[in-house]
């Protein structure tokens, strides 16, 4: 049988009642507090404190805190007036039993409502994470489609220019051929007139020319004039970086370009072990394009295999790790997505304007993986890092604020 606590204390104002219940050495984890609009219970075995309140209170605004050896309970009155007593003065056991049962029923309903609310909140967070991932994938698809359209337009323009050059070349050759034929005809007519004039005297015959001499004379007439000798001065335009001069980071830009060039030349030593692969399958760029196509068609496992083989061939290309992280997000391999995103960020150094977009993608993919693991503080750091790189992105601003709301418990 529990021991009833009688050495409690209470004070009041017109709007609030303060109750202090000594815990008699009990630890915080062993204190059970139930508070409703007409009943308060503090149980820490073997002690029990019950209060059948003098008047109903606003339970939604009541608070309880355990510390300094006491349970401090603050309840808000529904009407602003002073109470004569803290508890009802009745000793009717049936009345108290009815109040206790109603209080326990209300408390259970409250717990059930909170549990349902927490479940709905968790479901909303999962839905948000899924929507974020779908949005990122849509942006990735749009970017790939835009690149394809740009490349297609460029190829069409180059083909049209080549066809025009071929047409002009053909027309020029045709004109030269016609001109040559006209010149030959004129030469034949002149020779015929000379022979006709000589034959009219009847006594002088022209000396026949050798066939070889005629051919040499004709070839010399067809040769173009010698070209003039001269010098051509060549000057190279200096490379211009997009960063403003007052914020110049030319050294970092040059270092990034040098790293990119080295990465393209770097081939891992285990290429010799892949003798069973075709020639194109030994090219990391070809494998990356294949992985991109698999990702676009929803074959995420195929994309992971293509990116992984490309990484075996060359471990210095950050896009391979970042794209494989996107595949792992799709496959719910969240820890692997975090690992690949981190590797991509390590390779995307030094941070320059040329790799800003790649760093934003890597931060967002790692942040999304953290949020799906409910590590919202870590995810917020990545989204803030991405927002710092691209502060004008409305999508990043909205997603970052959403994560802050989840952390603060104010998300809808």
TrEMBL record:
TPR repeat start-end pairs: 360-393
Biased composition range(s): Basic and acidic residues: 211-220
GO cellular component terms attached to this protein's record: dynein axonemal particle; extracellular region; neuron projection; nucleus
Main location group: other
CDD domains, per database record: p23_DYX1C1_like
Cellular location(s): Cell projection, Neuron projection; Dynein axonemal particle; Nucleus
Pfam families membership: CS
Gene Ontology MF: a single term: nuclear estrogen receptor binding
Gene3D superfamilies, alphabetized: 2.60.40.790, Tetratricopeptide repeat domain
The protein's name: Dynein axonemal assembly factor 4
């Amino acid at each position: 049988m529990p021991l009833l606590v009688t050495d409690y204390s209470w004070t009041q104002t017109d709007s609030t009642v303060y109750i202090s219940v000594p815990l008699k050495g009990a630890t915080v984890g062993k204190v059970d507090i139930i508070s409703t609009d007409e009943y308060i219970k503090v149980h820490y075995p073997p002690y029990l404190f019950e209060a059948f309140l003098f008047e109903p209170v606003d339970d939604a605004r009541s608070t309880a805190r355990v510390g300094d050896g006491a349970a401090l309970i603050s309840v808000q009155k529904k009407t602003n007036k002073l109470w004569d007593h803290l508890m009802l003065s009745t000793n009717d056991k049936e009345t108290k039993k009815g109040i206790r049962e109603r209080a326990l029923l209300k408390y259970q309903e409250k717990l059930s409502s909170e549990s349902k609310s927490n479940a709905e909140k968790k479901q909303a967070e999962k839905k948000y994470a899924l929507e974020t991932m779908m949005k990122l994938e849509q942006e990735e698809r749009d970017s790939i489609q835009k690149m394809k359209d740009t490349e297609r337009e460029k190829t069409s323009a180059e083909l049209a220019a080549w066809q025009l050059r071929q047409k002009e070349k053909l027309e020029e050759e045709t004109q030269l051929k016609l001109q040559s034929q006209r010149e030959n005809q004129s030469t034949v007519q002149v020779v015929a007139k000379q022979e006709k004039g000589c034959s009219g005297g009847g006594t002088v015959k022209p000396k026949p020319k050798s066939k070889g001499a005629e051919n040499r004379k004709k070839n010399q007439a067809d040769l173009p004039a010698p070209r003039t000798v001269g010098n051509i001065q060549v000057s190279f335009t200096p490379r211009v970086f997009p960063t403003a001069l007052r914020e110049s980071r030319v050294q970092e830009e040059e270092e990034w370009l040098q790293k990119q060039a080295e990465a393209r030349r770097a081939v891992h030593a285990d290429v010799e072990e892949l003798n069973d692969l075709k020639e194109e399958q030994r090219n990391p760029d070809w494998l990356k394009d294949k992985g991109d196509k698999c990702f676009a068609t929803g074959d995420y496992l195929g994309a992971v295999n293509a990116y992984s083989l490309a990484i075996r061939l060359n471990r210095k290309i950050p896009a391979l790790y970042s794209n494989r992280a996107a595949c792992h997000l799709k496959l719910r391999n969240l820890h692997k997505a975090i690992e690949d995103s981190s590797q991509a960020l390590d390779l995307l150094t030094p941070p320059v304007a040329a790799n800003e977009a790649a760093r934003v993608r890597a931060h967002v993919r790692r942040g999304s993986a953290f949020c799906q693991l409910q590590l919202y503080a870590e995810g917020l750091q990545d989204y803030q890092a991405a927002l710092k790189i691209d502060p004008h992105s409305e999508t990043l601003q909205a997603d970052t604020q959403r994560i802050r709301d989840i952390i603060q418990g104010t998300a809808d």
